[in-house]
User: Fold TraR/DksA family transcriptional regulator from Micromonospora pisi.
Amino acid sequence: MLVNDAVGTARSQADIDLIRLSLEARFDELTGEYDDAVLQSQVLRLVEVGDTAGDDQADSGTKTAERDTAQSLLRTILDRRAQYEHALSRLAEGTYGWCEGCSAPIPVERLEIFPSATTCVSCKQSRERRAA
Assistant:
């Protein structure tokens, strides 16, 4: 069980520990992915520095696109890691599983699919409509 049930009963310490372990494991996985992506980015830069002789505009454009893709991947991983860090913080505070928008319980199914969710489906949809 990832969250309080619909009638509002509290999570057991065993449930909290299970959630914490799951969130920490995913955080650690993302940290490993980040470290790997940083290493790959550094290798890409070293290759670029040593392999620029004879580059034309297309080669330069390709290298720029590869560099941008690598940076985008790093930002995405850092963002996802921050989401899990926030989820762990909310778990410690006792607010994990409750919507930050309306304070309603976040459905268990949503948390099973997206453990770092901070909003219920309704609030998430409202935010997305406002952003569009």
Remarks:
- Residues 11-49+57-96 form one domain.
- The chain has two domains: 11-49+57-96, 98-132.
